[in-house]
Write a structure and sequence with these properties.
Strand content of chain B: 15-25%
Shape of chain B: globular
Largest sheet of chain A: 7 strands, parallel
Strand order of the largest sheet of chain A: 1-10-9-8-7-6-4
Distance between the termini of chain B: 16 Å
CATH class of the largest domain in chain A: Alpha Beta
CATH class of the largest domain in chain B: Alpha Beta
Number of strands of chain B: 11
Strand order of the largest sheet of chain B: 5-7-8-9-10-11
Oligomer: heterodimer
C-alpha cells in the first residue's frame, strides 16, 4: 500500500510563539521580534516534518489567523465580519463579508507563504480553503448566487494554483469541512464539480487533496466521488471505516485518524487497522494519513506527539504490518 | 424580575488596571500605573475605602503581600466600576480569577494543564487534560463572593463556569480511555457525559451549596460552550440540572456566540434557570436583526427573563444610546414582553481598555434609559 502522512491543517503555535504573538497584541514586543519567532518556529517545524518522513512539508501555516484570512486580506471584495464559531469547536474566525464579486490580486497566496516553503516549492504542501466551504461560511452581500459564487471562487483558486505552479508548487490541500457538514445539493453540487474541474486543470500533474472533517461523509460520497481531485480525505474520528460506502472505482483516499479533541494518544497499530479497513472499503490504491479535525485544537506539544504516532502508523502501513 | 424596565448588568470579566497586573506580576508600579490609579480613584474613591490596600499596592515592595492587596483593591475597583456605570447587579469583574476556565480547574482534582490553545487571532487559553476522576479540592469563589457581598451597594451576583463548558474546554483523556475500541463519535459522547455529570455533582454543586450558605442569592452559570455541539444540548441541560439540584438561588445561564434557535427547545429543559443571557450585538447590523432569534422563545412559550447583549465586546467602536435603545426595542418586540428584558454587553469586556469598557457600559445604561422613556415608563 502506498502511503503518505502529513499536516492537512495548521500546526498549533508553540508556547514561545503564543507568548510572542500575545505580547505583540498587548504592545509589549515588536513586529520584528515576532517575525524572528515565526521564522524559528517554521524552520523547526519543517525539520520535524522531514524527520517524521512526511512526503511534503507545510511549515505549519502558523501565521494563518483563520482559514480564510489570507484570501480575505489579499483579494478584493471582502471585509472582515463578526467573530463566529468554527464548526463544533471553541475556536473562532472572522466571518468574511463579501461586498462585491471577489477578485484576485496577483501574488496574494504566494506572498503569505513562509520562507521555508518558498525555498523548496516542490516539497511544499499548500493549505487553502475549499471553494464550497469558503462560499458557504461567508456573509454573501455581493448579489451573486451561492452556486455562482462557488464556481467563481473555484476559478479564482485555480488562478492562484496556476501562479503557484509557475513557481514549482505541486501539492495542494483544500479544506472542505462544509461539504460533509452541510452537503451541497442540486446546482450547488454541480458548481462544486465545475470549481474543482477548474482547479484540476490549473497545474498539470499537480496533486490536489480535498479534506473533509466534522461529520460522517456518507451522504456526500456520490458527489465527492465525482470531483476532479487526486484524493478525498474523510474523518475517521466521525465515522467507523465499516460504515464508509463501498466503492468500485480505485482512487486515492485521505483518512483523518488523529483526534485533536483529546490529548489521549492514538495507538499506531489501531490507526493502521482502521486506515487499511477504510482503504479496503474504498478500494484505495494510496492512503493519505492526516488529522480528523484541525490539529491546532491541541497545544503544540501534544500535537507533536500525535504527529509522531501518525508517522509510526504510516510506517506500519507501508511495511504491510497493521498490528 | 426587576422593578424598572431594562435593568443593566455585565456578564463576564472586566479589563484589569495596570497597577493590578504589575502587582500580580511582582513588578514595581510605574508612573503610568500610578496615574491610572489616580484617574480612577478620583471617580471611584478606592483609596478612601481601602486605604491600607491602596498604600500597600502603590508603595509596597513587590511580592505576595502586594499581590494580595492588589486582588482586594481590584475587586473593589470592579464593583465600583460597574456601579458607577449605573448597573443594577454587580460582582467583582472576576478580578481575582486567572480566567473563567483555568481558575476553577486549578481548584479541582483530576486535571493536568498541557498548554495553550488559540481561541482566535492572538487570543489563547491554557487548556487542561482530565487525567483522573474529577473532584473538588475545596469550594471556590467563596472569598470572592463574600467580598462582593460586604462591599457592593447594588445587588450582588456570582458568575461561575458551568460543568458542560469545563468539560468541553478540557481534553477528556481519563473517561475516554475507559471506552473500548476505536475512539469515534459515540465513544467520545459517552465519555463526555460521564465527565459533565461528574463535574456537576462533584465540583459545581458543592461549591454552589457553600456559596448559598454564605448568602449568595443570584448565580450566573456560564456555559459559553453550550452552542459548540448543538446536538449535545441535552447534556448541557443535564449538567445544569445536576449542578443546581437543591440550590436555593436565582439562577441564570449565559451562552454566547452561537446560533440560539439550534439549541431550542432542548435548552428550555433547564427548568431551574430563571434568566438567559445571550449575545446579539456582535452580529446585529443594518441588514441583520440579530434579536429576531428571540421570536423562538416566544413561540415556545418560554416566560423567563432574557439578558440581551446590546454592546459588542470585541470592538472599540462605541455604541450610541440611540442604537442601544433601538436594539432593546427590537428585542422587546421579538420577545413580546419588555418587562422580561435585561441589558448587558454580549460577554465580558475584558479585551477592551478600561476607558472603552466604562464608556460602553455607560452607553448601555443611557440607551436603556432612553428605551424606557420611549416606552413612556419612568426612569
Amino acid at each position: 500500500m502506498l502511503v503518505d502522512a502529513g499536516l492537512v491543517s495548521p500546526f498549533p503555535r508553540s508556547e514561545a510563539l503564543v507568548r510572542a504573538t500575545r505580547d505583540l497584541d498587548r504592545g509589549r514586543t515588536s513586529a520584528e521580534e515576532v517575525e524572528r519567532a515565526y521564522r524559528a518556529a517554521e524552520e523547526a517545524l519543517v525539520a520535524e516534518e522531514r524527520t517524521f518522513g512526511f512526503g511534503s512539508v507545510t511549515a505549519g501555516f502558523l501565521r494563518n489567523d483563520d482559514l480564510f484570512r489570507t484570501l480575505v486580506s489579499g483579494w478584493e471584495g471582502f471585509a472582515l465580519g463578526p467573530l463566529t464559531r468554527w464548526f463544533e469547536s471553541n475556536t473562532f474566525y472572522r466571518r468574511p463579508v463579501l461586498l462585491h464579486p471577489p477578485a484576485r490580486r496577483p501574488g496574494a497566496v504566494l506572498a503569505s507563504l513562509p520562507p521555508p516553503l518558498r525555498a523548496d516549492p516542490a516539497a511544499a504542501r499548500i493549505l487553502l480553503p475549499g471553494p464550497f466551504t469558503f462560499a458557504g461560511l461567508l456573509d454573501n452581500r455581493s448579489g451573486e448566487t451561492g452556486p455562482a459564487l462557488v464556481h467563481r471562487l473555484g476559478r479564482l483558486l485555480a488562478e492562484e494554483l496556476r501562479e503557484l505552479g509557475r513557481d514549482g508548487f505541486r501539492t495542494f490541500v483544500f479544506s472542505e469541512p462544509l461539504v460533509v457538514v452541510d452537503p451541497p445539493e442540486g446546482p450547488a453540487g454541480a458548481s462544486l464539480e465545475e470549481a474543482y474541474r477548474s482547479i484540476a486543470a490549473a497545474v498539470p500533474g499537480a496533486t490536489t487533496v480535498l479534506w473533509t472533517y466534522g461529520a460522517a461523509p456518507g451522504p456526500a460520497f456520490p458527489l465527492l466521488d465525482r470531483l476532479a481531485v487526486t484524493a478525498v480525505g474523510v474523518d475517521l474520528t466521525e465515522v467507523e471505516p465499516e460504515r464508509l460506502p463501498e466503492s468500485d472505482r480505485p482512487r486515492e483516499l485521505g483518512v483523518g485518524v488523529l483526534d485533536p479533541r483529546t490529548t489521549l494518544l492514538e495507538d499506531p497499530a489501531e490507526i493502521a487497522r482502521v486506515a487499511l479497513a477504510a482503504a479496503g472499503r474504498r478500494r484505495a490504491r494510496r492512503l493519505w494519513l492526516g488529522v480528523g479535525a484541525p490539529l491546532e485544537w491541541l497545544p503544540a506539544e501534544p500535537a507533536r506527539a500525535k504527529l509522531g504516532v501518525l508517522a509510526d502508523a504510516a510506517r506500519r502501513i507501508a511495511q504491510g504490518a497493521s498490528a | 424580575m426587576s422593578e424598572r424596565l431594562f435593568p443593566g448588568q455585565e456578564v463576564g470579566s472586566l479589563p484589569r488596571p495596570s497597577w493590578q497586573l504589575l502587582a500580580q506580576r511582582g513588578a514595581p508600579q510605574t508612573e503610568a500605573s500610578r496615574a491610572e490609579f489616580a484617574r480612577w480613584d478620583g471617580k471611584l474613591g478606592l483609596g478612601a475605602e481601602l486605604p491600607e490596600a491602596t498604600a500597600t499596592v502603590l508603595g509596597g515592595t513587590p511580592g505576595p503581600a502586594v499581590a494580595e492587596a492588589a486582588g482586594e483593591l481590584a475587586s473593589l475597583f470592579a464593583i465600583r466600576f460597574l456601579e458607577s456605570s449605573g448597573l443594577d447587579r454587580v460582582y467583582d469583574g472576576e478580578a481575582r480569577r486567572i480566567e473563567m476556565y483555568e481558575h476553577p480547574v486549578r481548584r479541582l482534582r483530576g486535571f493536568r494543564f498541557v498548554g495553550h490553545v488559540r481561541s482566535f487571532d492572538a487570543k489563547y487559553y491554557r487548556k487542561a487534560a482530565v487525567v483522573g476522576p474529577v473532584g473538588l479540592e475545596r469550594p471556590y469563589h467563596v472569598e470572592e463572593f463574600e467580598f462582593v457581598r460586604d462591599h457592593a451597594h447594588a445587588a450582588p451576583k456570582l458568575p461561575i463556569t458551568g460543568p458542560y463548558t469545563l468539560a468541553d474546554w478540557s481534553f477528556n483523556e481519563f473517561y475516554l480511555a475507559r471506552q473500548p475500541g476505536w475512539k469515534g463519535r459515540e465513544a467520545r459522547r459517552t465519555a463526555q457525559r460521564e465527565l459533565v455529570v461528574a463535574l456537576a455533582r462533584e465540583a459545581i454543586r458543592p461549591t454552589l451549596r457553600e456559596l448559598v450558605a454564605r448568602g449568595c442569592r443570584t448565580v450566573q452559570i456560564d456555559e459559553p460552550a453550550a452552542g459548540t455541539h448543538p446536538d449535545e444540548v441535552a447534556l448541557v441541560v443535564e449538567g445544569f440540572n445536576a449542578a443546581t439540584e437543591g440550590i436555593d438561588a436565582e439562577l441564570s445561564m449565559h451562552v454566547c456566540y452561537t446560533d440560539y434557535p439550534k439549541l431550542l427547545p432542548g435548552l428550555l429543559e433547564a427548568k431551574r434557570c430563571r434568566q438567559w443571557t445571550w449575545e446579539f450585538a456582535n452580529r446585529d447590523d443594518e441588514s441583520n436583526d440579530a434579536y429576531a432569534a428571540l421570536d423562538e422563545l416566544r413561540q415556545y412559550g418560554d416566560d423567563r427573563a432574557v439578558g440581551v447583549g446590546v454592546v459588542d465586546v470585541h470592538v472599540d467602536r462605541l455604541e450610541s444610546p440611540e442604537l442601544v435603545a433601538d436594539r432593546l426595542a427590537r428585542a422587546a418586540r421579538h420577545l413580546g414582553d419588555p418587562a422580561r428584558l435585561w441589558a448587558n454587553p454580549d460577554c465580558g469586556l475584558r479585551t477592551r481598555s478600561l476607558e472603552v469598557a466604562h464608556a460602553k457600559l455607560g452607553a448601555m445604561v443611557a440607551g436603556a434609559r432612553l428605551a424606557r422613556e420611549r416606552l413612556g415608563g419612568r426612569d
